[in-house]
Amino acid sequence: EVQLQESGPGLVKPSQSLSLTCSVTGYSITSNYWGWIRKFPGNKMEWMGYISYSGSTSYNPSLKSRISITRDTSKNQFFLQLNSVTTEDTATYYCARGGYGLNWFAYWGQGTLVTVSS
Amino acid sequence: DVVMTQTPVSLSVSLGGQVSISCRSSQSLVHNNGNTYLSWYLQKPGQSPQLLIYKVSNRFSGISDRFSGSGSGTDFTLKISRVEPDDLGVYYCGQGTQYPFTFGSGTKLEIK
């Protein structure tokens, strides 16, 4: 059974970088698509981007050049880096695996709350 | 971006009852390949979202047939029949047809 687990700091200062790790078990990240989605206080959810089985990436233009998704296939992990964070980046961050492709999210991690505050 | 509009914002239903949640997109969700990438998710209290339905009407593995999805183009519906206590939470629709992928704002289901 595929399982995903997010990890990383729960508190980040404004203007710094947010870095999260998604550790995957039960499925190789060299198959399928792997994404990051965040949920803001309230109910709004935002797709941030994904990394594919081949290592190609796609990002939400709203995040412009602040976002980077990378991976370490030897550890079966993929990573999120979001630069120059502000308080508006405070959210619960989820990693997820695509369904039969990249167009829906079949498996989700439990999520990690990241607060941006000085 | 494709805007996903969900209604109602919240609803309350008696156990055993039936509910419908509407999701409308600002643009057609028919992909160039002919598929319509509209999915439904449920976030139960204290849990991460779980996939219920993909490609409009396909139930994900292990999902009860009490959940059904329908619709086409820009207008979609999730129906839940014989509502059970475990169905409470926030339901989201999401589109994976056009970048960036987007989600509705959620419908909170409460049990009377």
Provide keyphrases for this structure.
heterodimer, A: 118 residues, mainly beta, 7-stranded mixed beta sheet, 4-stranded antiparallel beta sheet, 53% strand, globular, B: 112 residues, 0% helix
How would you describe this protein?
The complex is a heterodimer of chains A (118) and B (112). Chain A has no helices and eleven strands. Chain A is mostly beta strands and 118 residues long. In chain A, strands 2, 4, 5, 6, 9, 10 and 11 form a seven-stranded mixed beta sheet that branches. Chain B contains no helices and eleven strands. In chain B, strands 2, 4, 5, 6, 9, 10 and 11 form a seven-stranded mixed beta sheet that branches. In chain B, strands 1-3-8-7 form a four-stranded antiparallel beta sheet, with no helix packed on it. By secondary structure, chain B is mainly beta. The interface between A and B is medium-sized, with 21 and 27 residues.
